[in-house]
Amino acid sequence: MANNIHPSAVVEDGAIIGEGSTIGPFCHIGPNAVIGEGADFKSHVAVYGHTTIGARARIFPFASIGHEPQDLKHKGEKTTLTIGDDCLIREGVTMNPGTAADNSNTTVGNNCTFLANSHVAHDCQLGNNIIFSNGVLIGGHCKIGNNVIIGGGAAVHQFCRIGDNAFIGGLAGLENDLIPFGIALGNRAYLGGLNLIGMKRAGIERDSIHTTRAAFKNIFSGEEAVQDAVKSLPADQQADAVVSKIVEFIKASADRSLCTPK
């Protein structure tokens, strides 16, 4: 299937455009860009650097994808940005590649949605099925799991981890790690409970939800430190798959503290 490239678009020599793609007016595709099949770039989209974008990407005007990271330590080293399949990137979104100070790569998974003016900073690692609402900002080196939703205007501190199926409320300011299935609210953000709606949408059984709620209470409501509380969970709670995921997240090494209840 032939590509449809508008006469006003600039596709530099070396760029690879997948079959059946539409590159609209005034787009600029740099020489090291690789665009998957079936892409739809509406207009005024700028893709630069060593950037790979998966199949069927839909990108709207004034998105800036792959331009050099906003890190003053970056001195022009070759670093990369990799975006998965079926991603929707709306107006004014910015995504930066990695830096040599980390793993030199920023990665975005499949089927992710980035609404207007949201930002993915250098060296971030994002999973699949993520939604950034309008104006979401994440700092460098963040690791975000699958099925995460972040509300409009929220900001995430650099080096934060966000677990699978977590939810961050609009205008929240998250400066600590958020457990899988957790809800973060407020500025500065606190752990407001479990993302029960997200758990139900994920098909988690009722018994597991009840077990996870009990484990959450044991971990965060007692007088023990969180790291000690996870060690003393009852056996039936430790055996639950969702609880196990939360416990593994808490035990993992991290650069930031844990987001906890007020």
Search tags:
single chain; 262 residues; alpha/beta; UDP N-Acetylglucosamine Acyltransferase, domain 1; 2 domains; 11-stranded mixed beta sheet; 9-stranded parallel beta sheet; 5 helices; 28 strands; 16% helix; elongated
In which order are the strands of the major sheet placed?
Answer: 1-4-7-10-13-16-19-22-25-27-28
CATH superfamily of the largest domain: Hexapeptide repeat proteins
The CATH architecture assignment of the largest domain turns out to be: 3 Solenoid
How many discrete structural domains? 2
Helix content: 10-25%
Largest sheet geometry: 11 strands, mixed
Query: Which class of secondary structure composition applies to the elements?
Result: alpha/beta
Classified by CATH, the class of the largest domain is: Mainly Beta
Average pLDDT score:
97
Number of helices: 5
> Any idea what the shape is?
elongated
Give an overview of the whole structure.
The chain has 2 domains: 4-198, Hexapeptide repeat proteins (UDP N-Acetylglucosamine Acyltransferase, domain 1, 3 Solenoid); 205-251, no CATH class. The mean pLDDT is 97. The radius of gyration is 20 Å and the shape is elongated. It has an 11-stranded mixed β-sheet with strand order 1-4-7-10-13-16-19-22-25-27-28. Helices cover 16% and strands 26% of the residues. The chain is built from 5 helices and 28 strands. The protein has 262 residues and is α/β, with parallel strands linked by helices. The relative contact order is 0.08.
